[in-house]
Amino acid sequence: MSKADSKYKSKKFFMKQGGNRKVALDLNLKGFLCSCNNREKDCIREAYNLLNEYADKLYPAASRVEETEEVQDEDISESLTKEISDLKEESTPNKKRFQAIESGARNLLFIRTTVPNPAELAEAIVKDVHENGSQKTKFLLRLVPVETTCRASVADIGNAFVQLAEKHFQDSAQTFNIMFNHRNNNVVSRDDVIKLIAEKISAIRPDHKVDLKAAKLSVIVEVIKGFAFLSLVPDYLKYKKYNLLAICNQEETTDS
């Protein structure tokens, strides 16, 4: 192989690598944990389709009539410049409504999102699947909303939980349970996390009650390597832990 060919192939390789840079996990992300059985690309495709379908229903785009009224007094060139700028912003990675990221565990993907309420979107999906009994996915098994991410430590999990808890536990008494899972991390203690979260819930209102079989609200804590994924999910047990195949009476094929 000539030096010229070697340089060309090397340049082509690095260009390809640069174009496929993976987005890394970070703190304070919202999104969804998606479980599958080895078919990760198919799982991502199904997740994108499903999430976009229901997000379009819950969060429709702003009315074009209103936009037209707003720009009537603007110069046409200014209007076009603004529209081009908005399109560029939407195309950047941080502006994508849904974007898959490796979670750090096999058969478990994280799809970060810009939608305002991942729990609301996931609940709308599982309710529809439950009511209609229709199988929406084949490779995407469980769809668990994530309201925030933090570092995988008991203290950080406790602090992140407090920021979520008040909007769910302040107004009225709730039945709740705490679901803790860990993957590729043996440092964070399950008992310590559950004890701390239970104490913080009682501090908000002492009349909340634990219900391990039919809790109205589930506190989800998923620890994967150096990150923790937190959410407060309604009717998590009622809807088969948000397993889409189990909800529509399909055989549950994974416990992840």
Automatic annotation (TrEMBL):
GO terms for biological process: tRNA modification. Keywords: RNA-binding. The keyword Translocase does not apply. InterPro entries: THUMP_dom (IPR004114), THUMPD1-like (IPR040183). SMART domains: THUMP. GO terms for molecular function: RNA binding. Residues 128-234 form the THUMP domain. CDD domains: THUMP_THUMPD1_like. The keyword RNA-binding applies. Transmembrane segments: none annotated. Belongs to the THUMPD1 family. This is THUMP domain-containing protein.
